[in-house]
Amino acid sequence: MARRTLLDFFADVASLDGEFLVYDDGYRTWSYSYAEVAAGARTLAARLRGSGINKGDAVVIWSENRPEWIIALWGCLLEGVIVVPVDYRASARFLTKVAGIVDARATLVGDVVDSSALGTERPVWSLADVREAPEASLSGSREEPAITADDTAEIIFTSGATAEPKGVVITHRNILANVVPIEREVARYRRWAAPFRPIRFLNLLPLSHMFGQAMATFVPPMLPGVVVFSRSYSPDEIVRQIRQRRVSVLVCVPKMLEVLRDHIIRAAPEAAESPSGKSHWILRWWRYRRVHRMFGLKFWSFVVGAAPLDPELEAFWGRLGFVVVQGYGLTETAPVVTLNHPFHAARGAVGRPIPGVEVKIAEDGEILVRGDNVTTGYFRSPDETSAAFTDGWFHTGDIGEFDDKGQLHIRGRKKEMIVTPEGLNVFPEDVEQVLNAQPGIRDSAVVGASMPGSTAERVHAVLLVDPGTDVDAVVRAANASLADHQKIRAAAVWPGTELPRTEGTSKLKRRELKQWLAGGEKRERAEAGAQRSAVAVVQRFAPGRTITDATTIDELGLSSLERVELMMALEEALQVTIDEARYSGARTVGDLEALAQPLEAAGPAAIARTEPINFPSWNRSWPARTLRRASLPTWILPLGRFFARLNVEGLEHLRDVEGP
């Protein structure tokens, strides 16, 4: 049917049968059908209406990935309420600032965020309760709000160069410009997917990110498919989820492909071996059959977004027989500009522009975009908006070129913004502003530099300091004021009297600084690689920093994925097995050193703790369940009543509770 607004798409979603969303929080699993998601959205819409939150008002969502996030999104859209997503890793201070800018009427929060830090200025609702509404809000007739294609659906905020949040306005028309072309292409292949249904997606991209949102909210219903959300980023757990839930597609950032590659090579060393010459995909599948058994026979594809993908990483997974689909886009383009076709992927390219989107390369190599998917501008920022457009063309800040087949290749960035492996933006000026305010700092420069074995960039600082300044203390103090994704990973002291700058404009020569940093880090990595200790391993993740047993894990600025990488690096370098639960509780490098002792030296108690627990599965098989269900009422419970009397009160409170 014709799509005038996103509500037309919702009508189709509500009519679908079967399972839609699955959530595994590590303890229990919840499942929601398409009908339950639609009913929950209508319930929240009624609650919004009953609370006096109307069309044009804003509501902030601050939560981890969970089904209620999508229910809340649709509930707001039904009422014309503007959704303002905030990454769950953002600080409460950032959220409060954003909520004030949009004059949010309420904040919807998940389980892993600190909602107690939000104060009482505006209502805070738990996402776990969005499907419940007071009776008063459900009564009375509902007058449908008049919603058009040019109404604002979302405002998505990023950090600006002045440390002030900058909101990207996304309309129904912007999102539909992405949804409709993909839906038409999917329709061509839907009948071929019938034997493999349901197509399951394990989505690890945050729903506050437009691409993660699209791959959970809009693409799966086109098949229709199932979306699985998982709390854990451990490679063991990710592989287990894919195998046991029979997942077909993993949606993630490129960094996850790095973590999984290292995990796979450890478990199946033959994956690191590359056969000479080309071979048929069947032969490659057989050669790496142990890897395919680890993931399960239904898994075949990675869909990556939010950050640049290393071509070598793409080639590694392609050699194993998996398809890696990547695209290119920005929040301002809602989000897709180009997309690789899953069955005709071009390695090293980000695909062709989707229908309805125009792309051209400016004289200086910058990628310019025009189309209905492009934002109308930045929220209450006319100067920022006018600076981003020229004659209707949006300036992406990325450098690229088309090959002779019309495939777009990204060559770098024109802007000096750093894009982390998780797809979060860091503006160097924001970090430099905090650094320059620290005692003993005369000047600073922040650049994006890659970490060992990766092309992804992290925040590195080059400092011009007064004599006697403690650089590590400066970094600790600065990191205390920065958001997690902005935290300084490595720091180096510039040997000259002034940082290199251009004449006249006095702009920092960041490229020259990056080259200088790269030369020093190679030497440090070689020295650290020759040592076998937790301190030496951690040093590789924070080059230029002074690492001691007292250094805290938090001050290293590691993301959740990089903490997993660090654990794997410790196990590899020190030839030990580290218990994940104890690792999560480690606070300092000294704690890591204790965890990383060889098992013989750690004693029997440590060995018992570090061995994995393998729970039996036979007692959850269908014969065991059938026997148990028959035995409990017929002889187990009657026999038990000879020995114990049982008095149960309060069963009415459990009447509507869904069991595990």
Structure description:
There is one protein chain. The chain is of the alpha/beta class and 660 residues long. 37% of the residues lie in helices and 20% in strands. It has 23 helices and 26 strands. The strands form 6 sheets. The protein has a 9-stranded mixed β-sheet with strand order 2-1-10-9-11-12-13-14-15, sandwiched between helices. Strand 1 and strand 2 (29-33) form a beta hairpin. Helix 2 crosses helix 3 and helix 16 (510-529) packs antiparallel against helix 17. The two termini are 39 Å apart. The model is unreliable at 525-530 and 599-611 (pLDDT under 50).
Compact description:
The chain is built from 23 helices and 26 strands.
Beta-strand proportion:
15-25%
What structural class is derived from the secondary structure elements?
alpha/beta
Major sheet: size, sense and barrel closure? Answer: 9 strands, mixed
Helix content: 25-40%
Shape type: globular
Number of beta-strand segments: 26
Number of helices: 23
> Which spans of ≥5 residues are poorly predicted at pLDDT below 50?
525-530, 599-611
First-to-last CA distance: 39 Å
Our Rg estimate from Cα atoms comes to: 26 Å
Strand order of the largest sheet: 2-1-10-9-11-12-13-14-15
Q: Could you tell me the mean pLDDT?
A: 85
